[in-house]
């Protein structure tokens, strides 16, 4: 489904990704781990055409993504929750979720708000509350719920647990796994929280200074403590 090969990414003259290679299969849930500044967000943004200039192979469902604008990538089934959430603070929770219809297409209609709320139970009592009145954790859940309302086939999540209380992290892990599994939605998750990444995904990539330095399932990851110490400081 997503194929990234020999991907270079640049901000101006800064060369951030150096030949990065990852792939995500339909319905597969994949973690991308790495230290601060390793290039995780840059990779997600490259997939969405949301900032860096890129060179290399970038394909989604067999289609070359070069030159495809961001809104079109959303209509193809890609949905990104960026690190800063981008919640509309002056709209209610229900209205924020309903905004997903602007990314919909005839072949990929938005999921009704009520269906999304049913999948994210913590949002049910908050439906009429304004985005700006939510806690950080509630805002993050809302951002994930809104991304799912766009009916993606691949969800890109950028460090959703940053700064969240453990109880919300657990709730989010449950909601993410359930909604991805029920809808056969693939996941590409950038994380520093290994517990959450392990709970949500089946396969792991580790990235360091713009290069993929490890890939494998979690068992393989556990058998390589040197990778964890060297690249993740675990
Ligand atoms: N808009 C930008 N312009 C210039 N350089 C940038 C920009 N965004 C990120 N960078 C640089 O690119 C490198 C990779 O950043 P990136 O955000 O991809 O890392 P990350 O692995 O997601 O880290 P974190 O976990 O801290 O979010 C860093 O050195 C960062 O300073």
TrEMBL record:
Gene3D superfamilies in alphabetical order: P-loop containing nucleotide triphosphate hydrolases
Superkingdom of source: Bacteria
InterPro entries: AAA+_ATPase, ABC_transporter-like_ATP-bd, ABC_transporter-like_CS, BCAA_Transport_ATP-bd_LivF, P-loop_NTPase
One Pfam family, short name: ABC_tran
GO molecular function terms attached to this record: ATP binding
ABC transporter domain residues: 2-234
Entry keywords, A to Z: Amino-acid transport, ATP-binding, Cell membrane, Membrane, Nucleotide-binding, Transport
SMART domains per UniProt: AAA (SM00382)
Family: Belongs to the ABC transporter superfamily.
Protein name in the entry: ATP-binding cassette domain-containing protein
Lineage, highest ranks first: Bacteria, Pseudomonadati, Pseudomonadota, Betaproteobacteria, Burkholderiales
């Amino acid at each position: 489904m997503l194929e990234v090969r020999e991907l270079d990414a640049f901000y101006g003259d800064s060369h951030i990704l150096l030949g990065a290679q990852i792939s995500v299969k339909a319905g597969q849930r994949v973690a991308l781990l790495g230290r601060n500044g390793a290039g995780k967000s840059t990779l997600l943004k490259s997939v969405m055409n949301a900032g860096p200039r890129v060179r290399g192979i970038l394909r989604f469902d067999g289609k070359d993504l070069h030159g495809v604008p961001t809104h079109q990538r959303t209509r193809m089934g890609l949905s990104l929750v960026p690190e800063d959430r981008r919640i509309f603070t002056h709209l209610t929770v229900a209205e924020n979720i309903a905004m997903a219809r602007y990314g919909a297409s005839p072949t990929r209609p938005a999921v009704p708000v009520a269906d999304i709320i049913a999948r994210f139970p913590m949002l049910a009592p908050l439906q009429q509350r304004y985005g700006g009145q939510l806690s950080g954790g509630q805002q993050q859940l809302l951002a994930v719920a809104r991304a799912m309302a766009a009916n993606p086939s691949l969800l890109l999540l950028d460090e959703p647990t940053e700064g969240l209380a453990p109880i919300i992290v657990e709730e989010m892990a449950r909601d993410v796994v359930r909604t991805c599994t029920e809808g056969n939605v693939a996941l590409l998750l950038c994380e520093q929280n290994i517990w959450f990444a392990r709970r949500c995904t089946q396969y792991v990539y580790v990235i360091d200074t713009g290069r993929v330095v490890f890939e494998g399932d979690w068992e393989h990851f556990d058998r390589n403590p040197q990778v964890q110490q060297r690249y993740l400081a675990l």
